[in-house]
Amino acid sequence: MGPGYLLRGFRLITEPGLRKFVLAPIAINILVIGLLMWLFGNQLEGWLDSWLAGLPGWLAWLESLLWWLAMLLALLLFCYVFTLLANLIAGPFNGILSSRVERHLTGREPESGRSWRGELVDAVGGELRRWRWYLGRAVLLLLLTLVLLPIPLLGTVVPALWFAFGAFMLAFEYLDNPMGNRGMTFADKLRRLRERRWLNLGFGATATLFTMVPLANLIVMPAAVAGATALWLDHMEKSR
């Protein structure tokens, strides 16, 4: 069910009453993607060559496999950094889009109990708090990666671990919009995500894959915001 909600989000953002709320997130996506493509395109090959040059001689036979694993991890990193930066900048716009999607689907808007200034501060503050939460767990996963990557066979599970971590991260990013519009605390948001873990992982995994696809990644953020709002209303709002 989770993957279908991203596709539903792509359909929702084409609705006449919602299109104008998609323009700002798309413009931000274009800016962030352009910056990251310049950074990764100019530096990635040099980073990989330097890393592989430092491998001990007894691991030389793994160089080709490690190169492909590193490329996959770099692609995932691009996806996650893009998502975090784009959502940090577009947080207030995404909250408005989520609110309008909810009004489109239900005829009413969510109430957070805050002023618009309070909602703006909460959107930026919530994004920064999620960054701190992500980075703490990413450091632990990075340490595990450094242990597993040089080990034959075990190293091949590293991209899967990062993909699963990123899928949960993206689900949190996008579902935070309908949850934030209700004034939920950070702890409550995490609890609600964990209650429907597999549904949310399916949604986040689909968002991750679409973020890797050129052109699709330009509109994946507003589509994911719309799809996450629909997912919340159908499966998570009712269990409150």
TrEMBL record:
It is a multi-pass membrane protein. Keywords: Amino-acid biosynthesis, Cell inner membrane, Cell membrane, Cysteine biosynthesis, Membrane, Sulfate transport, Transmembrane, Transmembrane helix, Transport. The keyword Transport applies. Its main location: membrane. It is found in: Membrane. The chain crosses the membrane at residues 21-41, 65-90, 134-154, 160-177, 198-231. PANTHER family: SULFATE TRANSPORTER CYSZ (PTHR37468:SF1). This is Sulfate transporter CysZ.
